[in-house]
């Protein structure tokens, strides 16, 4: 027995010295097959098994622990706007490294990676010369790929709605072993709001003492409130039509809420928002709904010289009628759009999640419903029915 151990050590040393290809490192027994929840048709998931693929020298095999259900997953479930079916969805996932190639040493932030590390993935960004030539902080606008929105291939383990996922060499990956499971599941949507708030700050209007309206209190809007509260904004009014979500807005740091169902017409709704701010309109507003009518309304909530960040439209949500004279020009509104995030925003999201907990924001309560992988179709239907706030698939 001892001789066998010595021989293995010698073989490993010789392999390293000669540069021969070493097998991928692994400390846990990996099954021969992996299960995935594959979207095979509109509103239809199937659990499929595929052989465990080869893990190359630059690849990482992750045992999936959990993944949140995003609005993008719902769009794909209902409409397949990206034309990806059949596809393994899930991009808000996290898990534990169980096998990795010999060349894998560091994550995208320069932190060491090792077997047992808890990780998340971000967008895999490609520079667009027309963008980066003039603005080096716009990589998110260039071509990008995301695990969970990749076309199916011969590896199949392309999304986080699975038992295992393969992170290919050259992909973004972050070691987040210092975060708990629910915080790790919230990293991706939190990065969306970090980016949006950073965009808002470029206007010079968003400050500690700003009156801020947040329209739409789904997971994105609620995280927007939490980010604003964590950075010190005290006067936040949340607008939504579901009382449960407005109650969560208070937990995340909103100072007041307005239920638009209680007010008939945009003029009455505007007066309610104004009253919630003590008789003033908002200095700044975040539009988080993805609904065209909501975008049209939000200009009315903003004072002259105020600002707006629109981040709700990841897919085509339709036309939004506005009056450019009254809504923009006569008020000199400063508008910024926000599109996903950069890798820097992703890293900042880790600190936000820790800071929010430090000040007592119960972010973990945003994950209200959890499901097994076998229940994924029910989970998506429950999400469409607006049951709870953030729904997640958790692997036992």
Describe the secondary-structure layout.
Layout: H1 2-18, E1 25-26, E2 33-41, E3 44-51, E4 60-68, H2 71-79, E5 87-88, E6 92-100, E7 118-120, E8 124-125, H3 129-132, E9 144-145, E10 164-167, E11 174-175, H4 181-185, H5 187-201, E12 211-215, H6 219-230, E13 235-240, H7 243-252, E14 256-259, H8 266-276, E15 282-287, H9 292-298, E16 302-310, H10 324-329, E17 334-337, H11 343-358, E18 367-371, H12 376-384, E19 390-394
Parallel strand pairs: 12-13, 12-15, 13-14, 15-16, 16-17, 18-19
Antiparallel strand pairs: 1-6, 2-3, 2-5, 4-6, 4-10, 4-19, 6-7, 7-11, 8-9
Describe this structure as you would to a colleague:
The chain has 396 residues and is α/β, with parallel strands linked by helices. The chain is built from twelve helices and 19 strands. It has two domains: 12-178 and 362-394, Quinone Oxidoreductase, Chain A, domain 1; 190-337, NAD(P)-binding Rossmann-like Domain (Rossmann fold, 3-Layer(aba) Sandwich). Helix content is 31%, strand content 24%. The strands form four sheets. Strands 1, 4, 6, 7, 10, 11, 18 and 19 form an eight-stranded mixed beta sheet that branches. It has a six-stranded parallel beta sheet with strand order 14-13-12-15-16-17, sandwiched between helices. The two termini are 36 Å apart.
CATH topology of the largest domain: Quinone Oxidoreductase, Chain A, domain 1
Percent strand: 15-25%
The overall pLDDT average reads 91
Structural class: alpha/beta
- Provide the CATH architecture of the largest domain: Alpha-Beta Complex
* Helix count from the secondary structure assignment: 12
Q: What Rg is obtained from the alpha carbons, in whole angstroms?
A: 23 Å
The CATH superfamily of the largest domain is identified as: Medium-chain alcohol dehydrogenases, catalytic domain
* Terminal Cα span: 36 Å
Quaternary: single chain
Apparent shape? globular
């Amino acid at each position: 027995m001892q001789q066998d151990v010595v021989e293995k050590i010698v073989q490993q040393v010789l392999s390293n010295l000669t540069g021969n290809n070493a097998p991928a490192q692994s400390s846990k027994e990996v099954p021969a097959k992996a299960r995935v929840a594959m979207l095979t048709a509109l509103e239809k998931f199937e659990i499929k098994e595929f052989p465990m693929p080869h893990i190359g020298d630059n690849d990482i095999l992750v045992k999936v622990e959990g993944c949140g259900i995003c609005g993008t997953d719902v769009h794909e479930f209902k409409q397949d706007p990206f034309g990806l079916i059949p596809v393994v969805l899930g991009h808000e996932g996290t898990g534990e490294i169980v096998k990795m190639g010999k060349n894998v040493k560091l994550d995208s932030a320069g932190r060491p990676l090792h077997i047992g590390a808890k990780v998340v993935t971000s967008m895999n960004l490609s520079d667009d010369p027309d963008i980066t030539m003039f603005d080096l902080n716009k990589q998110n606008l260039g071509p990008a790929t995301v695990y969970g929105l990749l076309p199916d291939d011969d590896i199949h383990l392309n999304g986080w709605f699975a038992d295992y996922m393969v992170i290919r060499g050259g992909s973004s990956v972050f070691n987040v072993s210092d975060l708990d499971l629910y915080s790790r599941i919230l990293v991706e949507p939190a990065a969306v709001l970090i980016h949006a708030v950073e965009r808002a700050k470029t206007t010079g209007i968003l400050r500690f003492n700003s009156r801020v309206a947040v329209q739409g209190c789904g997971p994105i809007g609620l995280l927007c409130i939490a980010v604003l509260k964590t950075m010190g904004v005290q006067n936040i009014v949340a607008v939504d039509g579901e009382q449960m979500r407005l109650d969560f807005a208070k937990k995340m740091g909103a100072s007041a809420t307005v239920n638009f169902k209680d007010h008939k017409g945009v003029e009455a709704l505007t007066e309610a928002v104004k009253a919630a701010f003590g008789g003033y309109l908002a200095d700044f507003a975040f539009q988080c709904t993805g609904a065209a009518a909501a975008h049209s309304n939000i200009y009315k909530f903003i004072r002259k010289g105020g600002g707006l960040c629109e981040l709700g439209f990841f897919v085509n949500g339709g036309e939004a009628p506005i009056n450019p004279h009254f809504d923009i020009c006569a008020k000199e509104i400063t508008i910024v759009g926000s599109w996903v995030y950069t890798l820097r925003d992703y890293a900042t999201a880790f600190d936000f999640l820790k800071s929010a907990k430090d000040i007592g924001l119960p972010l973990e309560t945003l994950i209200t419903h959890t499901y097994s992988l076998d229940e994924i179709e029910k989970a998506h239907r429950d999400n469409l029915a607006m049951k709870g706030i953030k729904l997640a698939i958790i692997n036992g």
